[in-house]
């Protein structure tokens, strides 16, 4: 992952900045503004190299473009990555505030061509801090005039995706089915609750012992984090980080269906083909995890209320049915079918038709 290679990217803009005092490198990538200002969350993490940070930002920004397009939202795709000098839990409060202030300055210089929001390791109070310097921020806390955390809406959409995917795969409802959830954070924790209410038997994995203990006390079965891809289940819900299923994992993962919150679950198109050939039905993540975008863009740009957000988020099940039908008709993977739907909206012809 050399910087040279990672800068040969088809997106619209890459912005980087380094802060010597904290040892932090900032990346903002705008993949597309075709449908509106680019938008996507701010992820903070410790990366092995700047090349890895650029690559992550690029892939995540691309996924945001597709998410906005397939969800019929008037926004483009972008993402920020803050490459920290150490893991997030080792950064003290004063350093974190300085990091957020510099990030906010960078966003502000883009003058509204990029709007951020929360992602892994950033939350609503971080959005409040950014908003002291720039107005181009979604997901401030409710008390501060924002839409607050998008996690509940994302989880609801993932739950709809799980139901639609189980049904299409011939598993019926989730009642009595074994669902394995990887990652019990803001989204995964809620996915577990919804799936348990629907009667599923929950297997859970996380790297955080406290989250595992809480899940175990709630009656769920803990699976070691390293065993997730070898644990038999009816449906696998990756709700931790992306890049979890490569071709080798796709060839052996003992499940019938995949639907989760993580962005870019598959490492590449080949992994999707291997899953398809084995009859494992996979919900494209940029369709399944769009609930958070409905929550943020719906409320803060389009003036929706919470009921509107719930209604549109429940519609994720119908969008997936469309994706699955297209994939069956054309004999293509579900990922390729979802890409077709998103690209149809991104094409100049579709924009012309919508405005004529
Ligand atoms: P989070 O940080 O709250 O939770 C992630 C959880 O995964 C944590 O509990 C962490 O300990 C766990 N984890 C990390 N590595 C793991 C591993 N190797 N094995 C098992 N568990 C591991 O994040 P979140 O907000 O719940 O988001 C989860 C995923 O969903 C992320 O990939 C995020 O990009 C994606 N997503 C989130 C939203 C949203 O609205 N929050 C929207 C769209 C997509
Ligand atoms: C995501 O959905 O992956 C996000 O990054 C959350 C988001 C959604 C829409 C605008 C800003 C952030």
Structure explained in plain terms:
The protein is an alpha/beta fold. It is 46% helix and 15% strand. The protein has helices at 3-7, 50-70, 93-109, 124-130, 151-168, 186-197, 209-217, 247-252, 269-277, 285-288, 291-300, 306-314, 316-330, 334-346, 348-355, and strands at residues 13-19, 24-32, 38-39, 42-45, 76-83, 114-115, 178-182, 201-205, 221-222, 235-238, 257-258, 281-282. Strands 1, 2, 3, 4, 5 and 6 form a 6-stranded mixed β-sheet that branches. The structure holds nicotinamide-adenine-dinucleotide (NAD) and 3-phenylpyruvic acid (PPY). 3-phenylpyruvic acid binds next to α11.
Q: Secondary-structure blueprint of this entry?
A:
Layout: H1 3-7, E1 13-19, E2 24-32, E3 38-39, E4 42-45, H2 50-70, E5 76-83, H3 93-109, E6 114-115, H4 124-130, H5 151-168, E7 178-182, H6 186-197, E8 201-205, H7 209-217, E9 221-222, E10 235-238, H8 247-252, E11 257-258, H9 269-277, E12 281-282, H10 285-288, H11 291-300, H12 306-314, H13 316-330, H14 334-346, H15 348-355
Parallel strand pairs: 3-5, 3-6, 4-5, 7-8, 7-10, 8-9, 10-11, 11-12
Antiparallel strand pairs: 1-2, 2-5
This protein binds nicotinamide-adenine-dinucleotide (NAD) and 3-phenylpyruvic acid.
Residues 39-41, 117, 119, 138, 150, 263, 292-293, 296-297 line the site of 3-phenylpyruvic acid (PPY).
